[in-house]
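Ticket opened by: R.M.
Priority: normal
Category: complex prediction / small molecule

The reporter submitted a protein together with zinc ion and asked that the result be attached to this ticket for the collaborator who will pick it up next week. Submitted input follows.
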Amino acid sequence: MLAYTYIEKGQFRLLDKPVPRLQQPTDALVCVTLGSICTSDLHIKHGSVPRAVPGITVGHEMVGVVEEVGAEVTTVKPGDRVAVNVETFCGHCFFCRHGYVNNCTDPDGGWALGCRIDGGQAEYVRVPHADQGLSRIPEGVSDEQALFVGDILATGFWAARISEITEEDTVLIIGAGPTGVCTLLCVQLKHPKRIMVCEKSEERADFIRSHYPEVLVVRPEDCVDFVRKHSDHGGADVVLEVAGGEDTFRLAWQCARPNAIVTIVAMYDRPQVLPLPDMYGKNLTFKTGGVDGCDCDEILRLIAEGRIDTTPLITHRFPLARIEEAYHVFEHRLDGVIKVAVTQ
Ligand SMILES: [Zn+2]
Ligand SMILES: [Zn+2]
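Result attached by the on-call engineer:
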């Protein structure tokens, strides 16, 4: 089968590999029907994910059809359409029992697919802990509608959940990339009083303006003043930092009102400064880390009810055989690309 493979730093290649086999009774084999490319794939390509193992098939955003299940798999069966979770997790260790599945202590726990073990930019993928890592796609929900459930949409949902948003709040989201938009959609489910999005790319700012006209959009250089002017208590009640840019961490805490919650979703290339003397007395609460992708069934239900729609993010479609081109377009942000769907 075709499998897009991490060869070495700077190089991915489409190889012919054998179809994976079940290794554990808790595994499932999934025939991938639609996949995508994530910024994290680019991080692997550029060597900034030290855990990534050369030789693995990359890709951790996909949906498909269950082909085969191990003897201990109970929640899915061959023929089921499923969304694959970026995180595989055991479901019974201390962290899993508390919903912190990103920190699952199992050897295959956390982000393994397409990083430490073979992922889904391929025709088939083996999914460990299939009872936890696969969610059945409800009737009437298409592959394109479900494509981002297991990764960037799970991230947005998790970020909105931990940010303790109320209906009185003014919420600032920094960054309108694919994960920023997913975060916006999940923040909207909390019905805050006001939502602002800070984005430096004019193309992406326009995307927000045209699809979500009720959202206020601002450029980074105007952000501090704009947020102060448009919030009730001198700053945003909740800030979600999804950009991971040069100055966006600083911007996040600067735009927050005293006693605000600042949730850091972004992955940074380098350490950030937490200048405690400058923020003394501001009494901020910071929440950080990677997604706990344990709400995929609920997210799929919301999609089925028409309350979340990420399909406008899919701007380009390529078959797996042309995945090189898909990466080129995605990596260099050509032609207004937001997300690429990889078909079989
Ligand atoms: Zn990802
Ligand atoms: Zn676990």
